[in-house]
């Protein structure tokens, strides 16, 4: 006997539409609950995965079942909600992360009879979801989304298993300690192997796979039709060809009549799940002992709570695994339940890291006044800073701008995550990076390209501010009562930084040519918009040719930038061929050069001096003085202790003087003397002696920066004249996925034709992984249900079979990887894929230098 149920997303169309079409009703219901309750029922999650694993398709089903959309969009048709850019719809891939907000289950009324014990899932939760790109060129887009998330769903391709880019995004999630669950997708496709994928999770991601669901194949070897829930001891079967809303639920007793073999496997899965969790969670071990070691008698809620405790720290030591096929509308609703049940709310996450100048701490330490009390004693603080409690009490809100989008209808939209307080409409926001004040004229809650106006964005929520003219990705925005709009909050609060982000160096560049002189200004303004949206794009002017050079993370990255420039923004410009961004480097120590700057700057007298010499980083001696790392170079500042006879110029602090010197040196290193490439692996030593290099009130920060720049320029010219400038090229870390039959041709091509070095060859179940520092998992102890279509004994294809997937890890010069994808596809019959990232810059050998 089976029970046909309507999962909690299934209600009458009339009710669902009514809930959706009345924003005021939604806000009214929210306002009735306290802010604490609202925060506890909020989930800020992201979907991360390798390209083409099914992230956008899964997101589309989530929106449909939660009632946000009335039809299911398709990536191939270009009709999805989150892939709304023309370039995304044309290519069928996600290019920029998109944020959507929905309720699950959609409303508080009613609950599914299939889950009576789990009160958390019966409450309507607000889920702020970010769909991230999977292509390696857009890794920065994933990084800036991950740092503001509280949890993540990692989608895996059930056919391909754990792929190279999956390992990369998983490692990034480890860096931010984000709790994660895994969803094995595409189990309806030929060659899908759930058991093999589970074992790969253990071997390649170095976490213990806790199998919470197992796939249900009709008759053991038929089509994929449902899942077995090892937590709640039930089976769920979806109607073939339907929209996924009507599901048959089977208890263990019902399942005996329906599919006895599957019932036995489900019992085995429950025992393996409990046994695995008992190794990590003492509380569940105690419960297990109370029930006389009977895994079947343990309540479902106890297992759910144990899973939550095991993943809440974000270490990735336990990985709950769920099963489904999003394209066939199978398994998405239980996945949403798992998001509510297992992933944390904003209050359960560690405190956000903040910095005041060079002092670092947590947000709670700042709000308690501890960071202000410990702020450096030699700094100039405001009078209010002597009362830290009163100072921090005036902070109304603190938020991080993690994404900027230029919307053709609404203008510039700034996505923010609020960490404390609440941002209200028309609030004055101080930008601590740019030191400007802007007003939050409109606050929005985004549904990808659609939006709903809201009165405020409370702590723990993700929202959008429309109308900000200056805010960029990574800026910290602060609302402060009684602040002067021009000067902002008193020091040191005006230097507050939330979770700073490092932008990876670009490795490709292309020249942009406006069609006429009159178009130059328009093109420059459009490029400035692109740079606000994507900080991993860089632009600079070539002084010799006068060209604008746009730099990015990869071929596709620059191709998309060109498409947006020409097609979306209608710029009248042409982008040249994609080139490699080389570097220059010092090979020997230079003499010391002193430069005295004495010119009028902006109508004011400017005079300062500075001494500089250069050396390779590798041969640097013990560093004396304060050092700063800039774009692969090291800048050391030496300032002899000033005395009363020679104080620092004007009101400059030692910190401000150091930054002026660093800025001057950075400007000089941006353009090398040999081929105008930026400098790399160069150590700059700057000496500023107040007795010799200071000239009273004429010595300004601008004059100091200029003196440092010209001193470094002089040292670079000397190195060039002595033939001590070498060229360096970017070398990439490349991971190629291919089958066994193509392995020999790929290795030969990399090592002979492309000058690369093969580092490792591994199969899918190999022990080598990107997480070599983590303890390895004994795969033989991991439970995985048998794969009915695999040619092995439940662990995937045989070890030496022709279809075995192999991974080649190599280090290859970037110049040889331009256009490599087409070549790889021709060698592998269209089945090979690869991802690459910058490994290092290496000095060019003689023959390669001549070729450049």
Characteristics:
852 residues; alpha+beta; Rossmann fold; Elongation Factor Tu (Ef-tu), domain 3; Alpha-Beta Plaits; 5 domains; nine-stranded antiparallel sheet; seven-stranded mixed sheet; 25 helices; 39 strands; 29% helix; disordered N terminus; Ribosomal_Su5_D2-typ_SF; EFG_V; nucleotide-binding; GTP binding; mitochondrion
How would you describe this protein?
By secondary structure, this protein is α+β, with helices and mostly antiparallel strands. The protein has 25 helices and 39 strands. It has 5 domains: 3-348, P-loop containing nucleotide triphosphate hydrolases (Rossmann fold, 3-Layer(aba) Sandwich), CATH 3.40.50.300; 353-498, Elongation Factor Tu (Ef-tu), domain 3 (Beta Barrel), CATH 2.40.30; 508-577, Elongation Factor G (Translational Gtpase), domain 3 (Alpha-Beta Plaits, 2-Layer Sandwich), CATH 3.30.70; 588-723, Ribosomal Protein S5, domain 2 (2-Layer Sandwich); 729-851, Alpha-Beta Plaits (2-Layer Sandwich). The model is unreliable at 1-34, 108-119, 376-386 and 791-802 (pLDDT under 50). The radius of gyration is 29 Å and the shape is globular. Helix 10 (252-258) packs across helix 11 (260-280) and helix 20 packs parallel to helix 22 (701-721). The strands form 7 sheets. Strands 15, 16, 17, 18, 19, 20, 21, 22 and 23 form a 9-stranded antiparallel sheet that branches. Strands 3-4-2-5-6-12-7 form a 7-stranded mixed sheet, sandwiched between helices. Belongs to the TRAFAC class translation factor GTPase superfamily. Classic translation factor GTPase family. EF-G/EF-2 subfamily.
């Amino acid at each position: 006997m089976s029970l046909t149920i309507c999962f909690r997303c299934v209600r009458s169309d009339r009710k669902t539409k009514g809930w959706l079409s009345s924003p005021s009703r939604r806000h009214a219901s929210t306002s009735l609950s306290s802010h604490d309750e609202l925060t506890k029922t909020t989930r800020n999650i992201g979907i991360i995965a390798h390209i083409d694993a099914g992230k956008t398709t899964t997101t589309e089903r989530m929106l449909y079942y939660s009632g946000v959309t009335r039809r299911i969009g398709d990536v191939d048709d270009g009709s999805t909600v989150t892939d709304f850019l023309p370039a995304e719809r044309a290519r069928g891939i996600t290019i920029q992360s998109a944020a959507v907000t929905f309720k699950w289950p959609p409303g508080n009324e009613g609950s599914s009879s299939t889950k009576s014990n789990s009160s958390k899932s019966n409450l309507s939760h607000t889920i702020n979801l970010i769909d991230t790109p999977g292509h390696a060129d857009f890794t920065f887009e994933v990084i800036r989304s991950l740092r503001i998330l509280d949890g993540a769903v990692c989608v895996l391709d059930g056919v391909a298993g754990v792929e190279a880019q999956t390992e990369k995004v998983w490692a990034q999630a480890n860096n931010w300690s984000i709790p994660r669950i895994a969803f094995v997708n595409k189990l309806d496709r030929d060659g899908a192997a759930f058991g093999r994928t589970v074992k790969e999770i253990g071997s390649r991601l170095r976490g213990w796979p806790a199998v919470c669901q197992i796939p249900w194949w009709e008759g053991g070897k038929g089509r994929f039709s449902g899942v077995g829930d090892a937590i709640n001891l039930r089976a769920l079967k979806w109607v073939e060809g339907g929209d996924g809303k009507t599901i048959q639920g089977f208890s263990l007793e019902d399942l005996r009549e329906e599919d006895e073999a599957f019932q036995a496997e489900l019992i085995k899965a429950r025992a393996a799940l409990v046994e695995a969790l008992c190794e990590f969670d003492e509380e569940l071990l105690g419960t297990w002992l109370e029930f006389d070691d009977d895994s079947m008698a343990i309540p479902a809620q106890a297992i759910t709570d144990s899973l939550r405790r095991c993943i809440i720290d974000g270490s990735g030591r336990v990985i709950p695994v769920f099963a489904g096929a999003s394209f066939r509308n199978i398994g998405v609703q239980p996945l949403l339940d798992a998001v509510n049940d297992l992933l944390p709310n904003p209050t359960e996450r560690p405190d956000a890291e903040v910095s005041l100048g060079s002092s670092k701490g947590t947000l709670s330490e700042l709000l308690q006044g501890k960071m202000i009390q410990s702020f450096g004693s030699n700094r100039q603080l405001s009078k209010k800073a002597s009362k830290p409690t009163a100072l921090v009490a005036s902070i109304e809100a603190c938020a991080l701008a993690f994404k900027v989008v230029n919307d053709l209808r609404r203008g510039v939209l700034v996505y923010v995550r609020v960490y404390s307080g609440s941002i209200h409409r028309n609030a004055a926001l101080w930008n601590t990076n740019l030191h400007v004040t802007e007003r939050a004229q409109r606050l929005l809650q985004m549904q990808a390209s659609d939006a709903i106006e809201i009165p405020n964005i409370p702590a723990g929520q993700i929202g959008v501010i429309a109308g900000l003219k200056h805010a960029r990705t990574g800026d910290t925005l602060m609302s402060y009562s009684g602040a002067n709009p021009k000067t902002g909050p008193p020091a040191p609060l005006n230097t507050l930084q939330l979770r700073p982000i490092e932008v990876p160096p670009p490795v490709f560049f292309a020249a942009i040519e406006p069609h006429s002189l009159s178009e130059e200004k328009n093109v420059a303004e459009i490029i400035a918009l692109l740079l606000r949206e994507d900080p991993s794009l860089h632009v600079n002017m070539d002084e010799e040719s006068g060209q604008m050079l746009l730099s990015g993370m990869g071929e596709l990255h620059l191709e998309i930038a060109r498409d947006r420039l020409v097609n979306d923004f209608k710029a009248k410009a042409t982008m040249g061929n994609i080139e490699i961004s080389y570097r220059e480097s010092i090979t020997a120590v230079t003499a010391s050069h002193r430069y005295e700057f004495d010119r009028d700057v902006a109508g004011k007298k400017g005079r300062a001096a500075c001494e500089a010499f250069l050396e390779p980083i590798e041969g640097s001696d013990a560093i004396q003085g304060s050092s700063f790392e800039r774009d692969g170079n090291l800048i050391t500042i030496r300032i002899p202790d000033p005395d009363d006879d020679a104080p620092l110029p004007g009101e400059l602090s030692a910190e401000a003087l150091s930054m002026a010197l660093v800025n001057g040196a950075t400007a000089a290193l941006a353009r090398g003397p040999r081929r105008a490439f930026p400098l790399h692996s160069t150590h700059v030593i700057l000496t500023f002696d107040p007795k010799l290099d200071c000239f009273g009130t004429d010595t300004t920060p601008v004059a100091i920066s200029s003196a440092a720049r010209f001193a470094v320029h002089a040292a670079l010219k000397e190195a060039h004249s002595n033939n001590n400038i070498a060229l360096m090229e970017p070398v990439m870390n490349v991971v190629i996925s291919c089958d066994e039959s193509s392995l020999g041709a790929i290795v030969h091509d990399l090592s002979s034709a492309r000058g690369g070095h093969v580092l490792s060859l591994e199969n899918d179940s190999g022990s080598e992984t990107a997480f070599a520092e983590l303890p390895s998992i004994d795969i033989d102890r991991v439970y995985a249900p048998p794969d009915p279509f695999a040619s092995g004994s439940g662990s995937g294809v045989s070890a030496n079979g022709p279809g075995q997937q192999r991974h080649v890890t190599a280090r290859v010069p970037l110049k040889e990887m331009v256009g490599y994808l087409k070549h790889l596809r021709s060698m592998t019959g269209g089945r090979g894929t690869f991802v690459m990232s910058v490994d290092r810059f290496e000095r060019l050998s003689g023959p390669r230098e001549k070729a450049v």
